[in-house]
Amino acid sequence: xxxxxxxxxxxxxxxxxxxxxxxxxxxxxxxxxxxxxxxxxxxxxxxxxxxxxxxxxxxxxxxxxxxxxxxxxxxxxxxxxxxxxxxxxxxxxxxxxxxxxxxxxxxxxxxxxxxxxxxxxxxxxxxxxxxxxxxxxxxxxxxxxxxxxxxxxxxxxxxxxxxxxxxxxxxxxxxxxxxxxxxxxxxxxxxxxxxxxxxxxxxxxxxxxxxxxxxxxxxxxxxxxxxxxxxxxxxxxxxxxxxxxxxxxxxxxxxxxxxxxxxxxxxxxxxxxxxxxxxxxxxxxxxxxxxxxxxxxxxxxxxxxxxxxxxxxxxxxxxxxxxxxxxxxxxxxxxxxxxxxxxxxxxxxxxxxxxxxxxxxxxxxxxxxxxxxxxxxxxxxxxxxxxxxxxxxxxxxxxxxxxxxxxxxxxxxxxxxxxxxxxxxxxxxxxxxxxxxxxxxxxxxxxxx
Length: 449
Known about the structure:
Blueprint: H1 14-34, E1 47-48, E2 55-57, E3 79-80, E4 88-107, E5 112-120, E6 127-132, E7 139-142, E8 147-159, E9 166-175, E10 186-191, H2 207-217, E11 221-224, H3 235-240, E12 253-254, H4 270-276, E13 288-292, E14 295-299, H5 308-320, E15 325-329, H6 347-355, E16 360-363, E17 369-372, E18 387-391, E19 408-412, E20 417-423, E21 427-434, E22 439-442, E23 446-447
Parallel strand pairs: 10-11, 11-12, 14-15, 15-16, 16-18
Antiparallel strand pairs: 1-9, 2-4, 3-9, 4-7, 4-8, 4-9, 5-6, 5-8, 10-20, 13-14, 17-18, 17-19, 20-21, 21-22, 21-23
Region (Disordered): 48-67
Organism: Streptomyces filamentosus
Keywords: Signal
């Protein structure tokens, strides 16, 4: 335990106290006369720079104990990881070019016996600021630190109890750089390929579990990347299955259709349109756009990328856009290492998005998780390319990874979960979170084009 301590107060009599006060006043007055240009000057204490900043973590015990609770300035709220698992970490985004001099940790009963305090400029490569190997909980106050970066994390390697890790408070002190920190941060949850024909009464039914996870994250809104309902997306099936899980936050969902929505005997997209109504057709078509913060979102129907009206609408929509960051989502991925593989139907749309300097593309169709490095429509890795994520693990039966594609950076199959996207006015990053609340993959932080 590291505590800043001071000597106990000295008892004084009224007489001795008066003498002391008089002496102090004389001394201060003498200093003011001798050094008028420095009166009141002295080293300025570093500021608290972490309060209210965006935070992420490797896991949470449940939504009550989210990572943001350690940075909210409230001493009675806390972050808690899932129990019984090492390692675990808690990360805060301090904004560009922060210099850190002090980190104060207030542990709950579930403390770390061994942990590191680390700093990073990109969220990938970390530099150690402090190391604890024999922690005993309470308050750890690390002073005299020297480190510069954007992200700070507490990385626990050994629990002090049989529980997880839990921090009432993390306070990071220092200075921020001259660059204005990102603002307008918000979180979005996304998934595709969701509601198999089963309910929570079956322990093997996955979509009620991904829905519960999505609700625990409590995002600003939810995206779906198609194949929302299996097998033929009848209205009755939407009501019997999807509505019993993901339907709980239907009003905050911005969906797109997949190929299974076209199989409805009542007509292509009939059940999908009847269930979602204006939520899925806010502009009268199964494709639409909207803004959040400095982000422009484009929701597309990849079943009809040969529809000239949709393609012209997309070009016009992007030409009108005034936001600094652009994300598009639709069902069929141009690139995928899964069973369906690459789908060239999406290439013309990629070219339009790329020419408009879009940043992020989200897809489903293949039932696995995968992220790609920035690339252009021809699959060439380039810093000004678009990042693609395949997130088809919302509840349908998983597909195996088959042919690994160039620029694929991470692939996970067999683990149901959702994408937790953290966006600011200038950046984006995400985690793939499993239904056990464990973070299965953390992406780098990208800056919008």
